[in-house]
Amino acid sequence: MPTVRQLLQFKVNRKQIVALTAWDFAIAQILDAAGVDLILVGDSLAMVALGYENTLPLTLDEIIHHAKAVKRGVKNALIVVDLPFLSYQTSVESAIQSAGRILKETGAQAVKLEGGYPAMIETITRLVEAGIPVMGHIGLTPQSVHQLGYRQQGQSESDRDRLILAAVALERAGAFSIVLEHIPADLAKSISEKISIPTIGIGAGVDCDGQVLVTADLLGLTLRQPPFAKAYVDLRTIITQAVQDYSADVKKVDGE
Ligand code: KIV
After folding, report:
1. Are the C-beta atoms of residues 83 and 98 closer than 8 Å to each other?
2. How far is the CA of 90 from the centre of ligand 1 (A)?
3. Closest ligand 1 atom to Cα of 21
């Protein structure tokens, strides 16, 4: 099982980190057996598993419930769990309480939170001091959907500077890794070269230190895919066909 320290070695050894999201036992077991390095219990489970419109309604209790199921399915991968919206932004104390609950109750090794400089710096510093490994997340941050939408970030010079500053500050605060979501590939490359902790990209080009995808997108289960997400299989069609075949078998005895 890679620890957060070993994850740092991936970058030193120029080894790409393979990360995917999971929301239940079965998916987690499959990803882990397939050799994924890092499993993220992302708050995207709000949409892909719970049917919410966006990530905002998800509660700490809900993600803990799902993370426990994921943990039961994982033998090897490092498990990181998202801190849901409003479980960490109101105060450093609330962040420590929420992150502490995640580590205590789920058995996961780390938490992820969205936000940059200066908003999240004290929070990350204090979480790390409390022994809680933190993964950062900058660029498109879905918990800010009502401010940012789902647009690509880092397009203007000032926004690029803001994101570079945030990445450097997150590393200084003690984050062990940073997700870079939906930013230009050349910006993700510059950030990855500038910091010594691994960057994990999603819609941020190939020059990050690893990649993550929402597994429901990879499997072709979601109806609204982000433009940067590649479906490697169309499970929605395969499942529909299987259900129709089953249905036809059941109905064969109609009227007999
Ligand atoms: O919630 C999630 O699945 C995520 C990934 C998009 C990185 O944060």
Report:
1. yes
2. 21
3. 3
The answer to whether 181 is a known catalytic residue is: yes
Marked catalytic residue, from 53, 181, 193, 256? 181
For residues 58 and 52, is the Cβ–Cβ distance under 8 A? Answer: yes
Residues ≥6 apart with Cβ < 8 Å to 139: 153, 154, 163, 179, 180, 181, 182, 183, 204
Pairing of strands 78-82, 177-181: unpaired
Indicate the fold that domain 4-255 takes in CATH: TIM Barrel (3.20.20)
Divide the 256 residues of the chain into consecutive groups of 10 and give the mean pLDDT of each group: 90 98 98 98 98 98 98 98 98 98 98 97 98 98 97 98 98 98 98 98 98 98 93 98 98 81
CA-nearest residue, atom 2 of ligand 1: 42
pTM of the model: 0.97
